[in-house]
Write a structure and sequence with these properties.
Blueprint (H helix, E strand, L loop, with lengths): L29 H4 L17 H14 L20 H7 L2 H4 L11 H18 L3 E3 L5 H18 L7 E5 L5 H8 L3 E5 L9 H7 L4 E7 L11 H10 L3 E6 L11 H4 L3 E4 L1 H4 L14 E3 L11 E5 L2 E5 L15 H37 L15 E4 L10 H10 L6 E2 L8 E4 L7 H20 L1 H5 L12 H6 L5 H4 L6
Parallel strand pairs: 2-3, 2-4, 4-5, 5-6
Antiparallel strand pairs: 1-7, 6-7, 8-9, 10-12, 11-12
This protein binds pyridoxal-5'-phosphate.
Pyridoxal-5'-phosphate binds next to helix 6.
Amino acid sequence: MRGDYSKLIFEISKEGRTSYSLPGFDGESIEEMIDASLVRDEKPRLPEVSERDIVMHYTKLSEKNYGVDSGLYPLGSCTMKYNPKVCEDIAALEGFSAMHPYQSELTAQGSLMLMHSLAEALCEITGMAAFSLQPAAGAHGELAGLMMAKKRFETIGQANRTKIIVPDSSHGTNPASAAIAGFDVISIDSGPDGLIDLDALQAAVGSDTAALMVTNPNTLGLFEKGIAEACEIVHKAGGLVYYDGANLNAIMGIAKPADMGVDIMHVNVHKTFAAPHGGGGPGAGPIGASEEMAAYLPGPNAAFKEGSYILQSPAMSIGQVRGYYSSLSVLVKAYAYIAILGGDGLSEASIAACLNANYLREKLSSAYKMPHSGPCMHEFAAAGLLEAAEGVHTDDVAKRLIDYGYHPPTVYFPLIVEEAIMVEPTETESIESLDDFAEAMLSIAKEAVESPSLLKSAPGKAPAKRIDSLLAAKKPVLTYWQLKGENNG
Ligand SMILES: *Cc1c(COP(=O)(O)O)cnc(C)c1O
């Protein structure tokens, strides 16, 4: 049967098959040319397959995959959107893609210029005074930002500021980064409206407060209306405000975090500015600072001095947090995206992202619980089905969506929403695409009442059924030999 999706490449292996033929040199084959002392005693345990086998195997695997170019990918808190292919083309230009990590500044002028311009663009978009492009991801930016806060308090003789305040609606990486940076984490509950409870914040701040970390829009997809006041409360107590700007695609070109009063922030360029992500691919989490905090930024960073671009570290820098020229390809894509869209284009993208989310939220509210009053920003968190047969839960809705041909949204996150279904359609979806998705979600809601077994037994059409994801995380089987119960030779 064509398309046996279950076979691993080891299982189609046949001894002696190869997918290469090397030309040899001067009448000698490659094998003969290699010194016998360098040749293995035993063949490595690799699959032996023809070129056609390999091509078919990986093509089948790719057909099993669901990617941003396959259809709507509504994962909330992730911004899985269509990314223009022209950005890929630009990142693939040889001057960028063939750069050597140890290339001197003198021969890397183009890349340094791009990095310098991107940092300037991020300053313009966010209002911050300076940016370092070093961090490799959002969470890495958070860690770098908190290290800056720590160094600053040590420098001014306030090392006793050991507490980081985190609202319970913040992204999970926030408390994790604070703990890794050596701070104590204080969580404060959100108010019934899903926003920071300013009284709770006032009660939590003190002479030991290092910083407040705010995700804005927060993980409920809500804009923190009290953010300016929150900054004031923290500043009055002598602390700093860290802004998690991973959700910048909701506000770029509309509002600037610096105007809200924040001191340090990161941007997820692999969410907001056109780098496909997921699957652990490269990202970048540039970190921005106010005038006062800029001296502590990681370094070296691109700077323009006496007619050329150089690498330079801020005076009180926490040091280097990422090697070489950081995630250059991701930065090139981000710069290309910003340059192509321009300021007006970026605002339009934010408006479309918010409009799309509100449109879907409204359409789904007849069958799904919306725990907070709208409007939402670029995403929203529903609290499961309004009505369902006994025992039908959010994960059943998610699994059933696979049968409808969709990648499910984020589920059971944020933790503060019961039965959470978190949807982020992004700005790149058309109204037809949103209508189709809404129709699938509403049809599933109907099934949840009338024929719940369809949901409980879903997915019916996927190559794998319900996977024990806890077991997969705790005891991963990552090689064929592990699967066979043998050691990898
Ligand atoms: C994605 C995300 C992060 C973490 O970013 P990574 O690049 O995955 O490390 C942090 N905060 C928010 C709000 C996010 O959405």
